[in-house]
Amino acid sequence: MALKLLKQAWNPPADPDLSFAGRTIVVTGSNCGIGYEAALKFHRLGCERLILGVRNISAGEEARRRILDTCLAAKGDIEVWPVDMASYPSMQSFASRLSQLPTLDIAVLNAGVLFSSYAASEYGFERTIQINTVSTILLALLILPKLRASKTSSFIPVLEFTSSGNHRTVTWDTALASSSTPLRTLNDRASTQYNTSQYYDSSKLLLMCSLPHLCRLARSDPAQRTNTAPLPDRGQEIDAIITSACPGFTKTGLARDVLRPWMAPLWTVGMFFIGRTAEQGSRSLVSGVTRGRESHGGFWQHDKFQGYAGLYACFERLRHFWLASKERRELRTYGSKFLMRLKERS
């Protein structure tokens, strides 16, 4: 594993140079780390209107100032909008505001968390599952109609998740692997069996499980959106591209809650050798939204699309994960009620 990470660190993705002139782009979790670096690249590459979706407005304003100071030649506008991924009303307000834009061309849902200990959100989900999985899917559902409406004859809008390659290697015990409602099973056992890496990796796996079905909702033909086939049909006409990208193992503050004081020096030294910089990691997020129709339903990592692997390759599991909520017809509301009941009833 160390050799693999070392190779990745010293062979970073190519730095994208495609113009984003005229585009309106939103990036969540963009006040620091790879989200900030991705936002910086979008602005530098000519984005007309860049929206930083952040929980802390003051941190977002500081990020905006740094981007402007770094890219003196860029002319695009940068705005800071509040969005708290732990609050359904906040996400609904954010999405409502986005719906009022003239167009929304690209949405990068990057906000994510990593916690050292168990705690439940106000909606009853373990926090990692809440933010990385449930809230991210909800926000995707809320903004998908605006993305679809922004399609033109020359451009298909893009919705991109920040994912993790660990979703391809995470392992589950027999009870969890055989469960038809893995999200609920994970959540129910979290208070007594919480493990940082297990829950982070699983949160990304469950997020990826929603990808094929979001692809279905992006189809142009309303009659085809009810097709329950678990994989996206790349032959379908679509109004939005749904994709995902992995930045790789990067030097960011994501693990700040996990590190103990005595671990910090060792972590810093280790990351110097095997970690990509946040800027290098952000290259995958930016290049991932430029791949066009071929990226629909895909997972972009190390400058190429990766195949299905591990638990994610079990297509029947993807079907179970989605139908646990779909069968209750709550998906049509595009609201928080759908996700709040996902845990209670699945």
Low-confidence stretches: 325-336, 338-346
Please count the helical segments.
Answer: 12
Number of domains: 1
- Number of DSSP strand runs: 10
- Spell the H/E element sequence: HEHEHEHEHEHHHEEHEHEEHH
Q: Alpha-carbon distance between the termini?
A: 36 Å
Largest β sheet strand count, sense and barrel closure? 8 strands, mixed
Radius of gyration: 19 Å
Level-1 CATH class name: Alpha Beta
| Oligomerization status of the protein chains | single chain
Sheet with most strands: strand arrangement: 3-2-1-4-5-6-9-10
Would you identify the CATH architecture? 3-Layer(aba) Sandwich
Q: Pairing-aware structural class of the strands and helices?
A: alpha/beta
Strand fraction equals 5-15%
Molecular structure report:
- The chain is an alpha/beta fold and 346 residues long.
- The chain has one domain (2-345): NAD(P)-binding Rossmann-like Domain (Rossmann fold, 3-Layer(aba) Sandwich).
- It is built from twelve helices and ten strands.
- The chain is globular and about 55 Å long.
Summarize the entry for a quick read.
44% of the residues lie in helices and 12% in strands.
